[in-house]
Automatic annotation (TrEMBL):
<protein>
    <submittedName>
        <fullName>TRPV5 protein</fullName>
    </submittedName>
</protein>
<keyword id="KW-0479">Metal-binding</keyword>
<feature type="transmembrane region" description="Helical">
    <location>
        <begin position="134"/>
        <end position="158"/>
    </location>
</feature>
<dbReference type="GO" id="GO:0005886">
    <property type="term" value="C:plasma membrane"/>
</dbReference>
<keyword id="KW-1133">Transmembrane helix</keyword>
<keyword id="KW-0677">Repeat</keyword>
<dbReference type="InterPro" id="IPR008344">
    <property type="entry name" value="TRPV5/TRPV6"/>
</dbReference>
<dbReference type="InterPro" id="IPR005821">
    <property type="entry name" value="Ion_trans_dom"/>
</dbReference>
<dbReference type="GO" id="GO:0098703">
    <property type="term" value="P:calcium ion import across plasma membrane"/>
</dbReference>
<keyword id="KW-0597">Phosphoprotein</keyword>
<dbReference type="GO" id="GO:0005262">
    <property type="term" value="F:calcium channel activity"/>
</dbReference>
<feature type="domain" description="Ion transport">
    <location>
        <begin position="135"/>
        <end position="394"/>
    </location>
</feature>
<feature type="transmembrane region" description="Helical">
    <location>
        <begin position="192"/>
        <end position="210"/>
    </location>
</feature>
<dbReference type="Pfam" id="PF00520">
    <property type="entry name" value="Ion_trans"/>
</dbReference>
<dbReference type="GO" id="GO:0046872">
    <property type="term" value="F:metal ion binding"/>
</dbReference>
<dbReference type="InterPro" id="IPR024862">
    <property type="entry name" value="TRPV"/>
</dbReference>
<dbReference type="InterPro" id="IPR008346">
    <property type="entry name" value="TRPV5"/>
</dbReference>
């Protein structure tokens, strides 16, 4: 019951009341340390009160709990050293990481905890010491891997075509070699090494991604932008295309260019994932993701309807015409593709002035240009501009969340020998087996002195105002509204000449 009440207090909107009641309940806890403590008992979702405060974005409760956990090591004048307990914060030995919970939640208030002590210092320590070097090395390794795969595709085994052409529009001059003919020369053996590296890389990608999908869940793993959800879909699809291409090569099946083309596009697009390691480029990847999966996905439904309607109209108009003079609409699939190019203004309106064009073509193309080019494209630009404005206001916050998610990902993937635990074991200071982060703080005495002066002057102004208010209440029945305003003006002038006014002047000069 006590643990349930603690979880309820974390969700209370009255933060001050919740903190006092939290302390009151813990004062009756008999087992304050160890696994039986009320603060360490998780709820049905596996969240302790401390983790729940982070997921809900309750910064007041989080700071209150951190103040209870910290240990003052020493202080000398304005300098002080504090040990912060990071046992539940550090993701090194946690199955359900506190940092991963913060970046995976949809509440923006939770990401503000990343700027609080000691989370900010812990993330900075992990990222600067291990995260950034490993991430840059991983980015370089992936680019070299994609270069290897691209070279294997460019020099794939082809041979001249021997069969006769079946149509005047048939333009194929090379065909794919059979498996027995693909690995004969020295160049083929060299390409085989690159292909083996490509296939091994695809298998490694699937081995690393599938356990995370099962642990986190497909909805959260692919749906969270900060966790890199769309890029996980891209890299898994890329690995599957590589395996499909391998099977088609081993079985000598024609058409390997289809999965190979998809793999090339997806593999090189995944390079944008590594932009999150740089503050200048990281926010742009989030903007691209939000535009593609927000604005563009909604816009594509409207675009598909418009293209389908006008492509059908164009095909019907040119169905009776000679396709050699106007080949852009010679069949229905080509009409769809040509209309798509016209929609994005990639090509101009197809017209052959050496022949007579149907009259309805001019009418339909006029309506298409008005609806598609002038109306819908400008609507898409306005939608993307609004998304860019919204993301730009929180781009630094989103980039820090990306850094945290990347750090947690690297810490889980890499062996323990390459990523030692951050912080100091409490046994060195006689604090048990819990881990602490030592943070040195400098207290500015002038700042605190100014704050004390400010509070004192505010109290004097409040007392003077209360005295003036009592005078107004005693004479309120005999004064009219004009006299009240005059008296309040004279009261403000009289209080401005008090000692507090002189104090404010001293404070301004000192500042």
């Amino acid at each position: 019951i006590g643990n349930t009440v603690l979880h309820i207090l974390v969700l209370q909107p009255n933060k001050t009341f919740a903190c006092h009641m939290y302390s009151l309940i813990l004062s009756y806890d008999r087992s304050k340390e160890g696994p039986g403590s009320l603060e360490l008992i998780p709820n049905n979702e596996g969240l302790s009160p401390f983790k729940l405060a982070g997921v809900e974005g309750n910064t007041v409760m989080f700071q209150y709990l951190m103040q209870k956990r910290k240990q003052n090591l020493w202080s000398f004048g304005p300098l002080s050293t504090v040990l912060y307990d990071i046992t539940e914060i550090d993701s090194w030995a946690e199955d359900q990481s506190f940092l991963e919970l913060i970046v995976s939640t949809k509440k923006r208030e939770a990401r503000q905890i990343l700027d609080l002590t000691p989370v900010k210092e812990l993330v900075s320590l992990k990222w600067n010491m291990y995260g950034r070097p490993y991430f840059c090395f991983l980015a370089l390794f992936y680019i070299l891997y994609m270069v290897c795969f691209t070279m294997c595709c460019v020099y794939r085994p082809l041979k001249p075509r021997t069969g006769n052409r079946t149509s005047s529009r048939d333009n194929t001059v090379y065909v794919q070699k059979m498996l027995q003919e693909s690995y004969v020369a020295y160049e083929d053996e060299l390409r085989l090494v690159g292909e083996l590296i490509t296939v091994i890389g695809a298998v490694v990608i699937l081995v690393l991604e599938i356990p995370d999908i099962l642990r986190v869940g497909a909805a959260k793993y692919f749906g969270q932008t900060i966790l890199g959800g769309p890029f996980h879909i891209i890299v898994i699809t890329y690995a599957c295309m590589i395996l499909v291409t391998m099977v088609m090569r081993l079985t000598s099946t024609a058409g390997e260019v289809v999965p190979m083309s998809f793999a090339l596009v997806l593999g090189w697009c995944n390079v944008m994932y590594f932009a999150r390691g740089f503050q200048m480029l990281g926010p742009f990847t989030i903007m691209i993701q939000k535009m593609i999966f927000g604005d563009l996905m909604r816009f594509c439904w409207l675009m598909a309807v418009v293209i389908l309607g006008f492509a059908s109209a164009f095909y019907i108009i040119f169905q009776t015409e000679n396709p050699e003079n106007l080949g852009q609409f010679y069949n229905y699939p080509m009409s769809l593709f040509t209309t798509f190019e016209l929609f994005l203004t990639i090509i101009d309106g197809p017209a052959n002035y050496d022949v007579d064009l149907p009259f309805m073509y001019s009418v339909v193309y006029f309506a298409f240009a008005i609806i598609a080019t002038l109306l819908m494209l400008n609507l898409l630009i306005a939608m993307m501009g609004d998304t860019h404005w919204r993301v730009a206001h929180e781009q630094d916050e989103l980039w820090r969340a990306q850094v945290v998610a990347t750090t947690v990902m690297l810490e889980r993937k890499l062996p323990r020998c390459l990523w030692p635990r951050s912080g100091i074991c409490g046994r060195e200071f006689g604090l048990g087996d819990r881990w602490y982060l030592r943070i040195e703080d400098r207290i500015d005495p002038n700042k605190h002195k100014m704050m004390r002066y400010t509070e004192a002057f505010k109290a004097q102004d409040r007392e003077s105002y209360d005295k003036g208010s009592e005078k107004l209440e005693t004479n309120g029945d005999t004064l009219c509204k004009k006299d009240l305003s005059a008296l309040s003006l004279s009261l403000s002038r009289s209080t401005s000449r008090t000692s507090s006014h002189r104090g404010w002047e001293i404070l301004r000069r000192n500042t």
